[in-house]
Amino acid sequence: MAARRALKAVLVDLSGTLHVEDSAVPGAQEALKRLRGAPVTVRFVTNTTKECKRDLLERLTKLGFDIAENEIFTSLTAARNLLEQKQVRPLLLVDDKALPDFTGIATHDPNAVVVGLAPEHFNYEMMNKAFRLILDGAPLIAIHKARYFKKKNGLALGPGPFVTGLEYATGTEATVVGKPEKTFFLEALRGTDCAPEEAVMIGDDCRDDVGGAQNAGMRGILVRTGKYVMDRSCRETVVHQSCPGYDSPHAPDRAQVGSEPRASSRLLQMPAVPAVQSTQGLLGDPERIVTEQLVWGLIQQVDFLSCGLAACQAGDCD
């Protein structure tokens, strides 16, 4: 059996996991308080480009979350870091509320294109301006390529379709800085004194949160909130296509999506608690579904949880 690695850090997605717009996910504040009691480092990671970090923190504080600004790592931060490294002047296709995170970045006579979620700017004139800049050699930088995100009234298009349109029109491949890129997760862990194998990512996006974390060497946990909360037909066409083979009987290292637990005697189930489903490396057996209360409420039992994670990584789950 491989040496077990203690769980040292937990990365938590924000939109769809802790809150949806101006509403907290029920029980999330208390869950976070419990998580704070565990001997682990907590970081919050998000692809949101709808607002700057300052406004995001204000929103979370109003919702009752005890989070410090230095605990949040956003895709806007990752984009700014790349712009500074490349020393380019971007055409910023981002929401106006996100612009404070780019204060000090020169934007005159742009020689790069940065695309985030910018509904007010996704018009023909601006897209054509970006198109021409890219044709002239400007690099295309995607803050992220999410296809959709969760709003109170349903799913909404993310920046991904617009980035893909520019890629198609120009024959150029965008540089992506947000989730699910490996570099994003590694950057989020910087300063935690924690290796990817000692961290777990919790989020509502099968591809960007869970898949991205796994690709970076972390463990991933998919929650049944945010993007996950869809009707069955949407789940089959969106979630299953995001993770091919996710519910396949030939994929023993993944837990099923969209089906009820079948082996209740083997579950650590708590009543009236939204379920969290594990994916690769958590408990290994497709029938083993861990509840939110195990992850959030009992995560202080770090020795047990980390042993379970490490044992399954080594293929020793029964």
From TrEMBL:
Instruction: Report domain STAS positions.
Output: 1-83
- What cofactor does this protein call for? Mg(2+)
Q: Which UniProt keywords apply?
A: Magnesium, Metal-binding
GO CC, any one term = cytoplasm
The molecular function GO annotations come to: metal ion binding; phosphatase activity
Fetch the InterPro entries from UniProt. Answer: HAD-like_sf (IPR036412), HAD-SF_hydro_IIA (IPR006357), HAD_sf (IPR023214), LHPP/HDHD2 (IPR006355), STAS_dom (IPR002645)
NCBIfam families referenced in this protein's UniProt entry, alphabetically: HAD-SF-IIA, HAD-SF-IIA-hyp3
Q: Which family does it belong to?
A: Belongs to the HAD-like hydrolase superfamily.
What protein name applies here?
Haloacid dehalogenase-like hydrolase domain-containing protein 2
* Species this protein is from: Apteryx owenii (Little spotted kiwi)
